[in-house]
User: What shape does this take?
Amino acid sequence: MKKENSYDFQKKLLAIHEPDLRRKDKNPAGNQLELKDGLCVAFAPIAGKVIETAASDFADFLAISMGFSKVRVVKELTEEGGSVCIYPVSQERYANLLGEANRYKGFLIRVTDRIEIYAYDERGAAQALYYLEDMMSFEHAPFIKKEEIRKYAMFSPQMIHSGYALDEYPDEYLAKVAHEGRDAILVFTKDVNKTPGGYLDFNDLINRAARYGLDVYAYSYLLSNMSPEAPEAEEFYENSYGRLFRECPGLAGVTLVGESVEFPSKDPHVAKGRYFEIDSDGIPSGKVSAGWYPCEDYPVWLNLVKKIIRKYKSDADIVFWTYNWGYQPEEARIKLIESLPTDISLQATFEMFEPRQYGAYQAHCADYTLTFEGPGKYFRSEAAAAKKRGIRLYSMTNTGGLTWDIGVIPYEPMPFQWIRRYEGMRKAHDEWGLCGIMESHHFGFYPSFISKLSKWCFMEPREDCEKIAQTVIEGIFGSENYMAADKALRLWSEAIRCYTATDADQYGAFRVGPAYPFCLDRKISVQADPKAMFGGGICNTSYPTNADKRDSLISLRLPEEINALSRMQMLLQEGITLLEEAPEQNDKLKELINLGKFILRTVITGIHAKQWHKLKCKLQAAEEKETVAEILDKMEVLIQAEKENVQETIPLVEADSRLGWEPSMLYVGDGPHLEWKLRQLEALINIEIAAYRESLRK
Assistant: This one.
């Protein structure tokens, strides 16, 4: 594969359509309509910007992907054969035609000797055109089956953060988000027109996103360091949340999560200070801060913020997210939900906090993970409480395609494990009324075959997810490669179930991949770009080392985790071997193999990190010189194995500039960081281990 420069992946994200998809050797079947060059894409003059934008986009798709050169886009309805005609939306006379699709983003595609599109709204009409593009892309030809297709959205909003760059949304990227069926974007908000990265014109973004049928939500980083019961509280919050919605009334809503909006709570269960377990006088209190507990006065704060926002935006969606409270007693969490206002949206994370068994050792899903498909007990308890209260239910599902399992990849290519999550979400939709989802955090949304899979699985009426997976996999990687790809991806989908979703891994070796440093006596931090929002600080380069935790790590936890990750390594390698033996490796398949190899190399680093920590603990406890020497020898062997692993990783990140990068950390696992890791391993041998050996000679 060709070597890429840093940030070349952004150029890919700005290319809305894939060029030259058409296979000239294909002919239409008897039940297919063949679209031909010179066709007309027509819509009524009353159509708005969303339809106009989507119609032009459809013409571009036919030109770029199908090789057409004479497509016409006209603002008048036509009856000509072979045309694509979008009839006026929101008209009662079309309601019967739409049937069950007569609702938000609903559409009917009728294919005869031409294509007619009827939609409930403009967003539905745009989605119909994108649906046609998908079908032709999978077919690799401008052929559409003659039939009627009715679809509408299962979930709304579908919120994502930018995968282009933190809070950056170029028009082309917005178009790709819309093509993947999503309808809302998130912006980290510290003040009006202010994000963690600096100035951003919110109203400009709102207006640009609207052309693609996308809403904009503020993800609140606004300061809440005043009690809602203080005499000046209303003025304080008027100057933040009130001013935000007064100056940016086009915002669809705001997402409020404990760790970002915690306020000085009066709840006796929490510390007086704002930071974890630290009281206002700086002395540890043994209590968490308000962001990590379902405080009894959150409803007071929430009602005040809601009242202020809705003075300026009466239908603003107030999303209250319980992310931080999963480890707290269920009684306290449910008590809070029972006191919340009912005209908000409650968001519960889908899979977190769930216990997972690794042999004799049990751990909890520490952060967003695909290893457990969900729904977890935490989500189920809060979902049931929300339904009982009549509160609109959302969830953080990460179904944009990525979790915190491996921090510097674009997406997790494990479609059949994702399908298990989709099926759980469908059941949650039916049982508890799950209607809205957040699909990524700051690791962002990267369009992929996984996002295409979820797009189609999140439409009503439902289709079998396995059949959709076959359509997507065969359409993207080629029918000639389907069998190999299907078998490999099933192995990878099993591999992710072996992952150890603990803090030590998700915030350790798996956060940055093979660039993760190994520390002995001297702690080494990940070298990060100073412009990054979090940088290397979001990665922990050491395990717990106090005596009781160390003993349990060595004797119980680490051996079981190494066994689990070793099985993950084996399954990943089996899948890679199958893909490399595929008969005709196209570029998409080569990219998939490259991604799989990077994940494999990250798993090997994760195993090595655990083996390193076991040796480190034994070294610290060793008393005999002979024992110390043996441990040092084993350390050097392990370092050499890890050096080889890092060296094998370098060409992988050189071939794909998205590997080793994440929006909030920027590049932490790319070529230069891997070269740094090699120098750091050399320093371990030449300085720290050498010092130990020197001490043995005294």
The chain has a mean pLDDT of 94.
